[in-house]
Specification:
It is globular, with a radius of gyration of 19 Å. 47% of the residues are buried. The strands form three sheets. A five-stranded mixed sheet has the order 3-2-1-4-7, sandwiched between helices. A five-stranded mixed sheet has the order 10-9-8-11-12, with helices on both faces. Helices cover 32% and strands 23% of the residues. The model has no long low-confidence stretch (mean pLDDT 95).
Length: 299
């Protein structure tokens, strides 16, 4: 008998919900998205609404951007600050009357890619989600690593330049200030690219459209983005030496603009780059839906 599973990925900018069949988890039965609200009450209500729209049958998985403590609340969430210390699971159980499992959104994406994606059968994997910020998940010897507090996998806040731009976490020069959705916009602004061809404020989506149309400035910005992405991956490789880096999150949908250069710069940046013949950098097979699919698979 088939079982309909629902997962919702709550990011700093967008919420994405999917429904899958447990017996065929790679097949998305339904998908829906909406902007992430700005208040905790509205976020919880939106999650409940999306769950009902996905025809929830009895189990909900939710991935949240931030440090998930005890499967319940966020202790730190630079890109989702309204949800810090909010008893998300309890509120959803009361509203929906079903079981609810909460985890970090990037950890959910890692679970999806290890189950039905490009990391299937790979033991040593690092996944990075490129969205509003940068999230991450780490698997060693086939097991997801959570760390002493359950907070492992926040590479976006590695400091690349202590004199760099201010990060939403309160520090300066974090990796996600250069190699995320917000980061590529910042890179554009440093080059004086503040509006798109329609006169609207520049966005990552607009930069991708402009680059594909051959705009030289936009192409250069994505090249610089790739350099910063490669530098962060090289730092992670120096510590973890994974067989596979998976690039997920919203920007995976435009990975054609940066993935090849990222691979080239990674080899130049990492210690012993030419000797790391087994290390691959690949886009998430589940695309930007990986976090929601992984959330549906939580149990």
């Amino acid at each position: 008998m088939s079982e309909r599973l629902v997962g919702i990925d709550v990011g700093g900018t967008k919420m994405l919900a999917v429904a899958i069949d447990r017996s065929r988890p790679s097949e998305v039965l339904a998908i829906q998205s909406r902007p992430t609200p700005s208040t905790a009450k509205a976020v919880v209500e939106a999650v409940s609404d999306l769950a009902r729209e996905m025809e929830l049958e009895g189990h909900l998985g939710v991935g949240l951007a931030g440090l998930v403590a005890d499967g319940e609340v966020l202790r730190s969430a630079p890109n989702l600050q309204c949800m810090i210390d909010v008893p998300v699971r309890t509120l959803l159980v009361e509203d929906l009357g079903c079981s609810v499992v909460i985890d970090n959104d990037a950890t959910c994406a890692l679970l999806a890619e290890m189950t039905v994606g490009v990391a299937r059968g790979v033991d040593d994997v690092v996944l990075v989600t490129l969205g509003t910020g940068i999230g991450g998940g780490v698997a060693i010897d086939g097991s997801v690593r959570r760390g002493a507090h359950g907070f492992a996998g926040e590479p976006g806040h590695m400091c690349l330049d202590p004199n760099g731009p201010r990060c939403v976490c309160g520090r300066n020069g974090c990796w996600e200030r250069y190699a995320s959705g917000a980061g590529v916009v910042w890179l554009a602004q440093q080059r004086g690219v503040n509006i798109d061809h329609n006169g609207q404020a520049i966005t990552a989506e607009a930069l991708a459209t402009m680059a594909r149309a051959g705009d030289a400035d936009s192409l250069a910005i994505w090249g610089e983005f790739a350099d910063w992405l490669a530098l962060g991956l090289a730092n992670l490789a120096d510590v973890l030496d994974p067989e596979l880096f998976v690039v997920g999150g919203g920007l995976v949908d435009v990975s054609d603009l940066y993935i090849d250069r990222t691979r080239e710069r990674f080899v130049e940046s990492v210690l012993g780059g030419r000797a790391r013949t087994r290390t691959r950098i690949e886009p998430a097979l589940s695309g930007s839906s990986a976090g929601a699919i992984g959330a549906a698979l939580l149990n």
